[in-house]
Amino acid sequence: MDGVVTDLWLIGIGTGNPRHATLEAVQAIRNAALILLPRKGRDKADLADLRHTILRNCDSTAPIIEFDMPVRDDTLPYLQRVTKWHDEIATIWATAIKQSGLSGPVALLVWGDPGLYDSTLRIAARLQPAPRVRVVPGITALQALTAAHAIPFNTLNGAVTITTGRRLRDHGWPKGADTVAVMLDSQCSFRDLPPDGLHIWWGAFLGMPEQVLAAGPLATFAQPIVDLRATSRLRHGWIMDSYILRRQDMTTA
């Protein structure tokens, strides 16, 4: 039936560098019948522009439907707020696809990788009838971060925990972890940890011309990173950043 999605392709496009798109991603973009492209407000217009640049670089000829992302209701408890937001996004997708009247694979370009701290798969699961979902993996922010700092992701035989700023604030250093990688942290939650003996590697706009990096003992670099993050966000109107924490006695392990 036209306007009903039977194949949904979630294509990881990396952290902002158009060259992060893999050969598989390029081919998927070229073969898509329709592209859904989110808009996140005027302050983040360059995120949509980057997606358009990637589409042009991939020689995409598919029609593009742009849609405005709904705003989360901050008056609701966190999980209820996010669940309602996902429901709203799924409805927007379904409506846009139906109104297009097109059939064939529908593609969404996903920052980083669709499988790492991204909700696109959870939103896709809400579509009815359920489409066949294909995931094209992409370069994650954590891959780009370790590459930018030229560090290994893990210590020798060491455990790594990937978590969020919210969980770091609520629960502190994860038990048993030598290395902690933190995403989705607008509050700079590393400030809530006892800084002595910790080393931080931080980065924002990873892989982009605007990339900024900082690294060193947390006790020394916590406030400079907070200031650098605030300045960068003010300059661009948005920011995507991540960081890795490791105990200093493990930095060469």
From TrEMBL:
Catalytic activity as recorded in UniProt: precorrin-5 + S-adenosyl-L-methionine + H2O = precorrin-6A + acetate + S-adenosyl-L-homocysteine + 2 H(+)
Source organism (scientific name): Paracoccus amoyensis
Annotated ranges, domain Tetrapyrrole methylase: 8-220
Keyword match Methyltransferase: yes
Bilayer-spanning residue ranges: none
EC class name: transferase
Keywords: Cobalamin biosynthesis, Methyltransferase, S-adenosyl-L-methionine, Transferase
Protein name, as recorded: Precorrin-6A synthase [deacetylating]
